[in-house]
Sequence to fold (220 residues):
Amino acid sequence: MQILLVEDDLSLADGLQQALKQEGITVNHVARGQEALHVVKSFPPDIMILDLGLPDMDGIEVVSNLRKEKITLPILILTARNSVEDKVSGLDVGADDYLAKPFEMPELLARIRVLERRISTTKASNNIEVGVVSLDPKAMQVMVNNQDITLSKSEYMLLKALLQNAGRILTRDNLESQLYSWGEEVSSNTLEVHIHHLRKKVGSDFIKTVRGVGYTVNKT
Ligand code: CA
Fold:
């Protein structure tokens, strides 16, 4: 499972990241609302954990912005504000749950599990299919022409991002920062190496190079 953590308190963010990682949860962390909106649209996480007091915009605005665009990902608000009005306004604009700081880690994990169950019941079948490639995010399994293929974790995550954004160009920076957030050392040719291996597995024409910009797969 992948969580996007939006929190400008860096020591809290760091602690949460460590704790969630121990639970086998991949955490991508950003500190600003605008960044959060960008990441959600380009690399949809499974769940968003969102602080309300962000440096560039209010967390409530982040929620309402996403819901206006019909983005339904589960959002758990995490905040030091504990008034009933704040709680109500967060839930009113479309957040799914609310946890007041300070909180205990087991409680956060329990809330995450509830949201996770909700996702797995609403998205029983959410395979992403583009052309001959089909990706099952729950099983982390990829098929090409109905044949299972084996990918490394980085290859899988890159392919997933490309499929989810079929028809759109993903820039090198975008893809590299994703690799970096999954804990990979990214050197100057890391991305090319992964793309090279992916092309061998999914077909050499499937992933197109957009010269000087990045990569894309065609929507079919
Ligand atoms: Ca804050």
